[in-house]
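Pasting as-is:
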Amino acid sequence: MRTRQQVGVLATAVLAAAVMAVASGTVEAQGPGGEPQLPREGGLPLPLASSGLAGPNVLMGGVPAGHATADVLPVSLSDAIVRGLKQNLGIVLGEQSVRSASGLRWQALSGLLPTAGLRLSQTREEINLEEFGFPVAPGQSPVLGPFNVSALHLTANAPIFDYTAIQRARAGGQAATAASHSLRDARDLVVFVTANLYLQAVTGASRIDAARAQFTTAQALYDRAVNQKQAGVVAGIEVLRAQVQLQSQQQRVIFYENEFAKQKLALARAVGIPLGQQVALTDRVPYAALDSMTLEESLAQAYASREDLQSAVALERAAQAVRQAAIGEGLPSVNLTADYGKSSSAWDTLHGTYSVAASVRVPIFQGGRVRGRVLQADAQLKQQQAQVEDLRARIEYDVRSALLDVQAADQRVKVARSAADLAGEQLTQAQDRFTAGVSNNIEVVQAQEVVATSTENFLSALYAHNLAKISLARAVGLSEQRVKQFLDIFQGQPRED
């Protein structure tokens, strides 16, 4: 049977392992007409080696605060992060996990602290002397009593030396430390998740603006085709073609409006805003080049700041203490007990009594129990050491991947912006050619599709660039104390729609 502290350490290890088990990557889907559909709950793009108390679904949940009102609630990125750090379900559960780990620590510490108790008793007894081997004279009754015994005793027990209890207390302290690091890691991840959901939503708003602009252009082209047909300049097929394109653009507007509404719901749920509350996002998708960071600087910061690594190291120390506690079960222990009390046959005639005893317990043969526990604890220690080394390698992988993503995403934004500008010029020239009767509106429809594609590519690249930056911040250890610095990446920059 596992010791109580082993159970505590294992429980905390499960917590920390779950915190480090959130999957990474981005899930992509396609909407109608081939439009990219942003990932939703269960497919949330998370950075490699990120943490969550029970996976991304927990971090996508929140405890609503307050009630929905008729007013529109303005929410900035900073507001969303502050709310998430208070109301996100991962934070709420993590805080209670820390309390639970603290309780287990106190239970382990109790093995080193003295205990005392007060016992008050009133008994009525009748005993048989022959039962205890006392001789009884012939003709005498061996039964004494009935008689009363009134007693008041204060007892105390204090461990003088117990190596096992010392190591269990040490393991409990390390487990509580690991739980605290796990909570701080979860808070860092909530910052990432909230920022990502906010960026998804504001990117969705920009998609709506772009789709509406394309719808307006399609409407103008349709009206122009109708006028030209009425003037006998073009055939009826040109009007039908323009009408199809108009309805296609209208479909895009409807699709993106629906996606944006669901993205705001996902954000509201994660940060604890009542789902019936109308929300207006006040920040838009920004673009700001990130100052270059060398690989060596990033790795040094990650190893010093990543809370999941600190938690894993604390769990390794806890596992070492558990192993030492198992070894200690085969060592002698010294204990002191004391008893002071008063007793008599009546409460008004109490007489004082006391006893003090020091005992040394020397285990001689444990039937293989100690050896079995040592083997089990040693295996758990090796597993935790392997996890720590794997996490170190994973952190380096995270940092290297994030730096590559930032560089590539920055280049994507520049190329996509240039392509969007060229597509706009192409559409303008196609419209002019159609108006002048040089070409039919097939060329215009094709140019409109190029504009739609290039606009989507630009918005996707802009979102990927910002996601890469917050992923890099997460990879190097985005602590709660640096949230303001993190927000400066997104605020105070020119807006890009």
